[in-house]
Amino acid sequence: MPIIFDSEKKIFKLDTNESSYVFGVNDHGLMIHYYYGATVGDSDLAYLAARWGLSGVQAKPHYSVAGDMLNLGTKPLEYSTFGVADYRPTALKIKAASGQSATNLAYISHKIYKGKPDVEGMPETHAAENEAETLEVLACDEVTGAYVTLFYTVFENLPVITRHCIVENRSEKAMNLEAVYSTNVDLQGDFDFIHLWGRPCFERTFEREPIGHGSKTVQGLRGASSHFHNPFVALARPNACEDFGEVYGFNLVYSGNFAATAYRDSFEGLRFIMGINHEDFNWLLEPGEKFVAPEAVMVYSDKGIGHMSRTFHKLYSKHLCKSEWMTKKRPILINNWEGTYFKFDADKLCAIAEKASTLGVELFVLDDGWFGARNHDRAGLGDWKVNEEKLGCTMGELAKRINSFGMKFGLWFEPEMVNPDSDLYRAHPDWVVHIDGRPMSVGRNQLILDFSRKEVRDYIFDSMCEVLDNANIEYVKWDYNRNFTEVGSAALPPERQKETLHRYMLGLYEFLDKFIERYPHILLEGCSSGGGRFDPAMLYYSPQFWTSDCSDAAERLFIQHGTSMCYPTATMGAHVSAVPNHQTKRITSFETRGNVALSGTFGYELDATKFTDEECEAVKKQCEEYHKLYDVIHYGELYRLITPFDGDRTAYAWEFVSEDKNEALLTYVLLYSRPRVRRTVCLKGLDPNKTYRDEETGRTYKGSTLMNAGLNFIGFEGDYNSKKVHFKAID
Ligand code: GLA
User: Fold this and answer.
1) Which of 102, 103, 257, 683 has the fewest CB atoms within 10 Å around its CB?
2) What is the pTM for the complete model shown?
3) 136 in a domain, yes or no?
């Protein structure tokens, strides 16, 4: 039984296959957190929450009695509330009709059942009845009449617990939700904070730092999960590394403003909260209404960062994306963006597609510039009418021509945006996110359509359908190229203006749900000026996401490394582009560009008509390799072997191992060549007793030899040189 309740002691114990999570209800109805970590045999862990009581500067809550050592400020709490003697960052803050914000929750009841409930209106992980069990705990704040349901779903075969909550106003008066975080975990002791920071063209960069006393927060206030901070954090014990030690991973299934705060208190307690950012957020909850907070995923690993990542990968590969494409083989694509930018017509596009098709490419994607007056990025967004004059034909005809090369055809959209210079904006200036009387900032010459409004969503949906229903389009790239400023909605009253950003996200999710339902066979690839909205919520709709606008192979190693912390290989759009690279001007070999891009959803982003004969041969070889190595890369487990943060700081090496351990692929990239360096790489995750054959040389090794003694990459000098070694078990 993954969830048990000790009714006598009022203790809940949630067991995954590798972890235990224990909390209880004390005599005052307060929910106290006892333990989260590796599996333990006992459930009565209340003794762990004992703390020294404090007097004087530290307040005691009204119901504490002298000597009971109950002191909210030092107790590990299950879901903390603001303004009642807990001075740490808190998960829930409700402003009552009286204007005061003190909030307190007391346990009322609970339910335990098989399966996993929906997170209403929002993306979520899913599980069949026999794959998970759920605990719902109902608690209430007597003063405001707010009823809070905390949901915990325990996955039986993965060390994963998901959490979300619902706040319901069962009083007669309106209340304001000022903060509703999705998860709160109170741990104890020393931790490092691992997070993924970045910027456009340098997304999700791995960073690890010790947590000192006070707060460490990563957050987004841009209305999108963003290039700058991903809604992912891991708390790692200082001695934890890639392969050993305790790591707690957290990921929010949400694409809007988020915050994740770790707070180390003066008693060496460590609180972690993650959810919608309370900054610039307020939700007016009328009597009878409810508010649903997004889902937070919690992964526990006592086998290091690598095991945490592989757990996220398994969860997201099987329990997140609702597209049929998550498990279908992805086609090798070519996208015309870096090949032509806005300068093309149907003949040029067909020339690229035809050439690529002869080399093994399976899908041609027409990027930005095919609609309205879109010959540059200053006009046309929002006008989803095919520019037949520019193309020289209809979209249906273009799709037919592409199909005649034996290729699928795909199209770019940026549905949430509008250029001021567009027919749509001229007709509906109030449809954009704005504040009356305040000048609007533009980003890439565009404004954001107010997707919190149904009429706006319906208009865009219908105009997209018009295009999609009149051509054989089998792939859509959904882009999003600016963040929010001057946030306001013309459709909301003043007291609801701070709901705009969350209502926008709900509108976006509703749109995407409808889109997937109407076009279940379309392969949807997410994008946001590269990877500016690469989060589990977008991956619920789009099985692949354009990882970064930086297509330089060397830079991509850092980006794909950080992204792999929690997102599976099969979700990372990765393309071979031309050199000198358009973003960095770096020159890397065609082979290395291919080796890096093969560790993602593979494709090309260039003008194929410019290929030399040698490059044509290289493309053919890469396409063949893609098919040969597809299963081990897309369904295998990822092991990170070396990074430029290790050793002599010059190389990356990673490995995929099939589930049955019969196949492995190692890729090694030398970033910076130094003479006389010993370059030994040990593999991981193999069966020590099996014999593996190097498919190129025929040489055989025992798994134990490859893992303990390793391979020698000597004689391999040259910046950006790379090598793949493919092993198959022969016994
Ligand atoms: C964004 C995307 C690119 C490309 C352009 C088109 O920058 O990240 O891949 O689609 O928009 O304008």
Assistant:
1) 102
2) 0.97
3) yes
